[in-house]
Amino acid sequence: xxxxxxxxxxRVMSITRVNPDKVVGINTKGAQALEDYLxxxxxxxxxxxxxxxxxxxxxxxxxxxxx
Length: 67
Hints:
Structural class: alpha+beta
């Protein structure tokens, strides 16, 4: 990696559900299930702990606690 620990380059994971009143064919139950899953503390920890190729650097910042 060329740049590390730069706040502007952090990859924050987020989820936005689409309004089913405005978009036809939305799987609202599936979207809610995904959101509920991603907001679980254990999943938030896994997202934050994810590393690639043995690198000690954090790749993703789960932000459920800040929203």
